[in-house]
Amino acid sequence: NAGVTQTPKFQVLKTGQSMTLQCAQDMNHEYMSWYRQDPGMGLRLIHYSVGAGITDQGEVPNGYNVSRSTTEDFPLRLLSAAPSQTSVYFCASSYSSVTSGNTIYFGEGSWLTVV
Amino acid sequence: QQQVKQSPQSLIVQKGGISIINCAYENTAFDYFPWYQQFPGKGPALLIAIRPDVSEKKEGRFTISFNKSAKQFSLHIMDSQPGDSATYFCAASKPGAGSYQLTFGKGTKLSVIP
Fold first, then answer.
1. Which residues on B lie below 8 Å from A109 (Cβ)?
2. What digits encode the pLDDT tens for the residues B57-85?
3. Chain A nearest CA to B48, separation (Å)
């Protein structure tokens, strides 16, 4: 199992450009989410999905768009990149069990620089 | 409004010593408190987690202490090793649909020196 796979690993964008960060999981998890990590800020939730066809906003959704057409994939779209969106982006998926609670698995991250 | 406050920002511990990281939360609806470990260039990985019905949970050298009345919880790393050098994040989530949405502290960079 690959777990949570993110692409690309690194990307440089010009202000105003759009792009999509890809995320795929092979664990058949219903729940997926996107976080951004900035120095000294911890991780902040951008968008999440509780299943195919269902998405909702997190703490910092502005400037981002998501869709969930399949259980496996959860792409994050930057509509018009701004320097403030320079960050490390993490995709996560999770499941819930009676014994272990909610276990959230993170991808390796995508480093995005907007110039 | 920062719902989970973490301290210290950075910590230097001698090999073999005890590392202690503290977190405080404000929202009494939180009912799940995980700690994540992150190495440079990698995603966070779940280290240990606790629910408020217990005051302590231990897994190997890692222990979570939980004080519900004070709304505080802490991570203790016993016999700290250089391989423990990483950034540690505390987090919290609510029950039900909120259980999948983590609110993170800002992180503590731990350096264990030989």
1. 41-43
2. 999 999 999 999 999 999 999 999 999 99
3. 10
> Average pLDDT, stretch A34-50?
92
Residue A17 CA to its chain's centroid (Å): 18
CA distance B108 to B76: 13
Residues 6+ apart with CB under 8 A from A57: A47
The reply to whether residue A101 touches residue B46, judged by beta carbons under 8 angstroms, is no
Taking only the tens place, the pLDDT of each residue in B13-59 is: 999 999 999 999 999 999 889 999 999 999 999 999 998 889 999 99
- Per DSSP, the three-state class of A78 is strand
Partner-chain contact B100 A33, CB within 8 Å: yes
* A4 contact B CB<8A: yes
Distances (CA, A) of A56 to A4, A50, A67, A101, A115: 20, 8, 10, 22, 29
DSSP state of B71: T
Record: contact B32-A101, CB cut-off 8 A: yes
Alpha carbon distances (Å) from A110 to A85, A106, B3: 12, 11, 26
Our CA-based measurement puts residue B42 at a distance from the nearest CA of chain A, in whole angstroms, of 5
Structure tokens at B27: 């929202």
Question: Is B6 in Cβ contact with A42 (below 8 Å)?
Answer: yes
- Burial class of A82 by CB neighbour count within 10 A (0 to 12, 13 to 18, 19+): middle
Question: What's the DSSP call for residue B93?
Answer: B
Contact B88, B80 (CB under 8 A): no
